[in-house]
Amino acid sequence: MINVAILGYGVVGSGVYKVITENNDVVSKNVGDEIKVSRVLDLREFPGDPAEEVLTHDYDDILNDDSIDIVVEVMGGLEPANTFVRKAIEKGKSVCTSNKALVAAFGTEILDLARAKGVNFLFEASVGGGIPVLRAINESLTADHFDKIYGILNGTTNYILTKMSEEGLSFDTVLKDAQERGYAERNPEADIEGYDACRKIAILTSLVYGRFTDYEEISTEGITKITNNDMIFAKAAEMEIKLFGLTEKNEKGFYSMVAPFLVGKEDPLYAVNGVYNAVNLHGDMLEDVMFYGQGAGSLPTASAVVGDVVELAKNKGKVLPFGWTADKITLSDINEYETAFFVRVNSGDAASFKNSFENVKMIEAPEITGEVAFITEKMSRNVLDARLRDIEPLQVIRVN
């Protein structure tokens, strides 16, 4: 029997308990041994809940129980999660987590500690919720050099942008709707300002390139400045606005960012709507491969966590290879990264921008007066700003 402890009995923790107990037949079959939740840690009481009989308020009950093989950390935040995870590993217990903040900040150190102690640290659910992208990168996509990773990594922002596009609603209106539906937190800053997606692209980049990527050095822009006029012009151009986490390695540098992008119908992420997430990787042999699914929610995320539990149980006593070292990636100036740009300006500035740009694609949106919009040729933001030096643009969004 493999005994599991769950740290945190919130949305994800209760989902992990539900998946392991209600689908115990398939989970245990895939391991080749019975999986049992023997402890759940939470400060609250849950009278009448199935987990009540294994509930504890004292972490030492888990730490000092040698029969517990695997610890699932789904508390969120940096502390006490960081301390609890390290103590479990020090005790020879393998750990898996959905905690992107923990992995982005301390993943390198925790992986090194796990290797030293002969156990494992897995974090599939920290990036794409229920999407099994990390395991695919680590185990299946091992024959390519990848030059670009980009994706929709936050379901809240994708839901907001989808509703704004499809229903013509304002950002504030859709944000309130998302909060009422439980898609956005009461304080939505981490989502709408891009911080959540930033940590996820940092984790993806670290794993794909095998070197630590500091999320604090990634250029991060959210969606709070996206307007209805942006959506109207995007529709007129047969494009959609998506918040991307993106990393690209090319002959000019190593770039990483979180920012809104316009995407056309030829892009596989064009049709990824609502709370769904998707990750696209481009390799030198494989070319493009996309992973798509629910990026949040109790059971999709719990499913990915339990996938890690199964992996840990099947490899008990074996240290899994994980190509992520403390060697740090040096990121290039994002203002030198070249893309096309969508630009909105006042109609009075039309003559000026035509003198500054040679090849632009004008976007016709008759319902908008007093503004013009266009898509530039490929250039860096520094070059764009230099050409717009006499113009105050109403909006600038990159085009993928």
Question: What does this protein structure show overall?
Answer:
The protein is elongated. The strands form three sheets. Strands 7, 9, 10, 11, 12, 13, 15, 16, 17, 18 and 19 form an eleven-stranded mixed sheet that branches. A six-stranded parallel sheet has the order 3-2-1-4-5-6, with helices on both faces. The protein has a two-stranded parallel sheet with strand order 8-14. The mean pLDDT is 94. Strand 16 (361-363) and strand 17 form a beta hairpin. It has helices at 11-22, 24-31, 60-63, 81-90, 100-117, 125-128, 133-140, 155-167, 171-180, 189-192, 195-209, 228-236, 298-314, 350-356, 381-387; strands spanning 2-7, 35-41, 55-56, 68-73, 94-97, 121-122, 146-152, 211-212, 219-220, 239-250, 253-264, 276-283, 287-294, 325-328, 338-346, 361-363, 371-375, 379-380, 395-399. It has 400 residues and is α/β, with parallel strands linked by helices. The chain contains 15 helices and 19 strands.
